[in-house]
Design brief:
mainly alpha; 6 helices; 0% strand; globular
């Protein structure tokens, strides 16, 4: 989000305010919402709903890429992106704990959460390569296709865990 906004002409101080401060606040609220929502619905429903929310965030970015960036659109994009990240991260880390073995929860959680963090780093590198070679619009399209694939896989193959 930060490099994208800078590429759209937003200065670094404003990006820090919008993404860093505002986005972090929204992310905090998203974490609280994720906790509440995940207690009311099945994991499968939550996973699919949060993944669809991610798709909506990407659609907003694609819209901005194809039209003019305005402050209301910038706030909408930061809000949806921060919420999407917070919602998704909360459910993923919760599920990592759910699937950790009782006898080795600490080790299982540490390994799985480290792999999750590592894949986020690798995906940022891949995104950078796509952006450098094909632009932000193509990177957003790849993201959307990936998220739609995730929704399909969850819908088709995810089985609820007996607790």
């Amino acid at each position: 989000m930060k490099p994208y906004l800078i590429s759209k002409g937003i200065n670094a101080d404003e990006v820090a305010m919008y993404v860093g401060i505002y986005g972090s606040g929204v992310g905090f609220i998203g974490g609280v919402l994720a906790s509440f929502i995940s207690k009311k619905f099945s994991k499968k429903t939550v996973l699919i709903s949060f993944a669809i929310f991610n798709v909506v965030a990407i659609v907003i970015l694609i819209f901005i890429e194809n039209y003019q960036l305005t402050i209301p659109l910038l706030l909408l994009a930061v809000t949806f992106t921060a919420l999407a990240i917070a919602l998704s991260s909360a459910i993923i880390f919760s599920m990592i704990m759910d699937y950790s073995r009782d006898t080795s929860r600490g080790v299982d959680y540490a390994v799985a959460s480290s792999l999750f963090s590592f894949t986020r780093i690798i995906s940022a590198v891949i995104a950078g390569i796509i952006i450098s070679n094909m632009g932000f619009g193509m990177m957003f399209l790849f993201e959307m296709i990936g998220m739609i694939l995730v929704v399909f896989i969850i819908f088709r193959f995810y089985k609820e865990q007996e607790v």
